[in-house]
């Protein structure tokens, strides 16, 4: 691709991976539209872009809101003469095991992490179909391939995202549209802290023991977390590949784990591992 003539829409750019990706793609010379649901949270992105000597069109886009995505993407297409690449990064975590979580928690997770991507595709696909090219790269997770204790709603949504895009990819390809997902393991930042609900503070109740044991495992895993910049670099690699694959793991550790999962037809080996975490 020729960066200067490539318009890249990125969601969830107020922090973390989205912010780092916006800076990376802008530094490479792309026409970046960096979006977030609340422009009051745009200061860190402004500072990072300034420090990098780069610029982006920063706009509001709430992926959980039908009108925000439909109207927002239509305006971007009109102002930027189309969109070439969408990086669907916005996502929320919801900590808890099923009995602790409300139906509203499950809905919220699905609304953002799955339907957010559906909304983006509804808005971008007509233009991509008519020009015969386009690219969606969605930030999934190792949680899109491997169920994890106390991540029931999050894993439900990321598995859903992967099912959605695995189903859509061969049809999209008929129209020259590439669809990819990336599966990071732990990435340093605010994501896990933001996902911890009130139940997380409780040191009592039936789930306190397994939760404490799982949290120790999770904290240990984050000692070897990747950085947002590493994931941004990874996204850049996919965006510039001529023939991108459907699914990428962003580290060797996740690649090994997902590889074992795919061979574990009965789920016994997986459950032996995840049972040890609680
Ligand atoms: P983060 O710093 O919390 O970033 C999440 C971003 O999504 C924030 O900008 C957040 O905006 C935004 N967002 C949430 N709901 C939104 C909505 N309805 N509309 C638009 N934006 C919304 O965490 P991150 O680690 O960079 O997460 C980015 C992606 O990576 C997520 O999809 C996550 O599932 C995935 N991931 C993260 C990890 C990890 O360990 N961190 C690992 C694997 C995958 P606000 O600032 O307004 O909340």
Give the full name of the CATH homologous superfamily: NAD(P)-binding Rossmann-like Domain
Q: CATH topology, anyone? A: Rossmann fold
Structural class: alpha/beta
CATH 2nd-level architecture: 3-Layer(aba) Sandwich
The helix/strand series, from N terminus to C terminus, equals EHEHEHEHHEHEHHHEHH
How many alpha or pi helices? 11
What ligand molecules are bound, each kind once?
Answer: NADP nicotinamide-adenine-dinucleotide phosphate
Strand order of the largest sheet: 3-2-1-4-5-6-7
Number of strands: 7
Intertermini distance: 46 Å
Major β-sheet annotation: 7 strands, parallel
Q: How many domains make up the 3D coordinates?
A: 1
In short:
Helix content is 50%, strand content 12%. With 278 residues, the chain is α/β, with parallel strands linked by helices.
Task: Write up what this structure looks like.
The structure is a single chain. With 278 residues, the protein is of the alpha/beta class. The chain contains eleven helices and seven strands. Helices cover 50% and strands 12% of the residues. The chain has one domain: NAD(P)-binding Rossmann-like Domain (Rossmann fold, 3-Layer(aba) Sandwich), CATH 3.40.50.720. 40% of the residues are buried. It has helices at 16-27, 43-52, 66-80, 103-113, 115-131, 152-173, 191-195, 208-222, 228-239, 252-263, 268-276; strands spanning 7-10, 31-36, 57-60, 85-88, 134-139, 177-183, 247-249. The radius of gyration is 19 Å and the shape is globular. The model has no long low-confidence stretch (mean pLDDT 96). The longest helix is centred in the middle third of the chain and has 22 residues, at 152-173. β5, α6 and β6 (177-183) form a beta-alpha-beta unit. The protein has a seven-stranded parallel beta sheet with strand order 3-2-1-4-5-6-7, sandwiched between helices. NADP nicotinamide-adenine-dinucleotide phosphate is lined by residues 11-12, 14-18, 36-38, 41, 62-64, 89-92, 112, 139, 141, 184, 186-187, 189-191, 194. Residues 11-12, 14-18, 36-38, 41, 62-64, 89-92, 112, 139, 141, 184, 186-187, 189-191, 194 line the site of NADP nicotinamide-adenine-dinucleotide phosphate.
């Amino acid at each position: 691709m020729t960066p200067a003539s490539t318009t890249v829409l990125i969601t969830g750019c107020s922090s973390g991976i989205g912010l780092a990706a916006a800076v990376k793609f802008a530094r490479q010379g792309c026409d970046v539209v960096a979006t977030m649901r609340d422009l009051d949270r745009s200061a860190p992105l402004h500072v990072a872009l300034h420090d990098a000597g780069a610029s982006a069109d920063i706009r509001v886009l709430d992926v959980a809101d039908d009108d925000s995505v439909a109207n927002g993407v239509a305006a971007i297409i009109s102002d930027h003469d189309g969109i070439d690449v969408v990086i669907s990064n916005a996502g929320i975590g919801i900590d808890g095991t099923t009995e602790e979580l409300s139906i509203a928690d499950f809905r919220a997770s699905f609304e953002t992490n799955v339907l957010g991507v559906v909304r983006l595709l509804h808005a971008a696909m007509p233009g991509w179909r008519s020009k015969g090219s386009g690219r969606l790269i969605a930030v999934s997770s190792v949680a899109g391939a491997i169920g994890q204790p106390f991540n029931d709603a999050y894993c439900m949504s990321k598995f859903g995202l992967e099912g959605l895009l695995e189903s859509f990819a061969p049809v999209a390809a008929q129209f020259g549209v590439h669809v990819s997902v990336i599966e990071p393991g732990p990435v340093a930042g605010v994501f896990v802290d933001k996902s911890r609900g009130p139940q997380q503070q409780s040191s009592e109740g039936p789930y306190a023991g397994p939760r404490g044991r799982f949290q120790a495992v999770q904290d240990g895993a984050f000692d070897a977390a990747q950085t947002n910049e590493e994931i941004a670099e990874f996204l850049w690699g996919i965006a510039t590949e001529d023939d991108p694959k459907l699914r990428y793991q962003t580290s060797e550790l996740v690649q090994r784990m997902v590889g074992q999962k795919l061979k574990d037809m009965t789920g016994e080996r997986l459950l032996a591992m995840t049972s040890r975490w609680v």
